[in-house]
Design a protein that fits this description.
With 399 residues, this protein is an alpha/beta fold. Helix content is 36%, strand content 15%.
């Protein structure tokens, strides 16, 4: 599937000898001693960078790391990220000591064909998130060609994703961006059915717009995580001390009514793994009709896992976003891992994982290579499958 009309692929652009700014998403977790804890976002952009090196472009990488809120925070420097990228590329990556300014300009000016430089954390400058035109112009002045390969930030109208693009004569999408658009676009078109969405996470309020959009497209929805508690409570169940959004119960009831009217099957947990708290030693599975008043539901139970596994196995298109339980605690991760494995076992379906904890689960379960696509963007993938315009993609269209 080609890119949307007006958006060029990096392979189509003349980059030889030119200064090419590549917006990448290298917002990776760091260990306490400031080493990269998970380099999957770095490895994802290697094809685009290597392609540009082979074509002897002068490469300037721009990314953010964490939430410095427009202030210089040394603990959020991209230094360990640049070091890991250099290891993976087998070539030097020169890190500027600032996102813009004399130091950055010198690093860019000294680049030779096939060399790679990285600007310091773009969010050290308040102009990045504010999409300030002055900051955007400074970034644009460093390059002849602009490439966006940061799908995970495409839903943000920041200086490096939107503002600078209009000041660049040549622009296009890198390999990561192109693949995300291609695969996720398939979910918006005609798909093989049944189409099942598996949606988890903490809050109905965070996902209700996504759920409403999916209701127009899917044949079934399997709900997990704490948000399932709110739906179960809306049905009259008593979930004890479980996390429930009491003020969202009318929204949950309305959603279940709409799903019934549209003939969309909503799968809700029939049993849950309970404990007295997140750090409790003792856990057990009980029916959703038998949660004690002093207990919390923290994962889907084994009977629910079997029911969801069967639904996943029958589906021919599956989109998954959000964990089934408190995934960061091993005692409450079984439901999430079961979904990951069930998706991997369905070799007949288009299987798409929408970033965040779900992507981490697929990687930890060792099945990332057995699903069709693991998205690099959580929020961006959710907005895309709602059919919303993503500013970072819109900005790439030739206007």
């Amino acid at each position: 599937m080609p890119l949307p009309k007006g958006i060029a692929h990096v392979e189509e652009l003349k980059v030889e000898g030119k200064r090419v700014f590549v917006r990448v998403d290298l917002n990776v977790p760091l260990t306490k001693d400031r080493k990269v804890a998970d380099d999957s976002r770095i490895t994802a952009v290697l094809p685009t960078i290597k392609h540009l090196i082979e074509r002897e472009a002068r490469i300037i990488l721009g990314s953010h790391l964490g939430r410095p809120d427009g202030q210089v925070k040394p603990e959020l420097s991209l230094e360990p990220v640049a070091a890991r990228l250099a290891e993976l590329l087998g070539t030097e990556v020169v890190l500027a000591d600032e996102p813009v300014g004399d130091g950055a300009r010198k690093v860019v000016g000294d680049l030779r064909e096939g060399q790679v430089a990285m600007l310091e954390n773009l969010r050290f400058a308040p102009g990045e998130e504010a999409n300030d035109d002055g900051f955007a112009r400074q970034l644009a002045s460093y390059c002849d060609v602009y490439i966006n390969d940061a799908f995970g930030t495409a839903h943000r109208a920041h200086a490096s994703t939107v503002g600078m693009v209009k000041h660049c004569a040549e622009k296009g999408a890198g390999f990561v961006m192109a693949k995300e658009i291609e695969i996720l676009s398939r979910l918006l078109g005609e798909v093989d059915r049944p189409y099942l969405a598996v949606v988890g996470g903490a809050k109905v309020s965070d996902k209700i717009e996504v759920l409403d959009a999916l209701l127009e497209r899917v044949d079934g929805l399997a709900v997990g995580g704490a948000m399932a508690n709110t739906f179960l409570t809306a049905q009259g169940k008593n979930l004890g001390k479980s996390k429930v959004e009491a003020d969202k119960l009318p929204i949950a009831r309305n959603f279940l009514r709409k799903a019934s009217e549209k003939g969309v099957t909503v799968h809700l947990p029939i049993d849950v793994v309970i404990a007295s708290g997140l750090d409790a030693e003792e856990t057990r599975a009980v029916s959703v009709d038998a949660v004690p008043a002093d207990m919390m539901a923290l994962d889907i139970g084994p009977a629910t896992v079997e029911a969801y596994r069967a639904a996943v196995g029958r589906a021919r298109t599956i989109f998954w976003n959000g964990p089934m339980g408190v995934f960061e605690k091993p005692k409450f991760a079984a439901g999430t891992f079961a979904i990951a494995k069930a998706m991997a076992d369905n070799r007949l379906a288009l299987t798409v994982v929408g970033g965040g904890d779900s992507a981490a689960a697929v990687v930890k379960a060792g099945v990332a290579d057995r699903v069709t696509h693991v998205s690099t963007g959580g929020g961006a993938s959710l907005e895309f499958i709602q059919g919303l315009e993503l500013p970072g993609i819109t900005a790439l269209a030739k206007g």
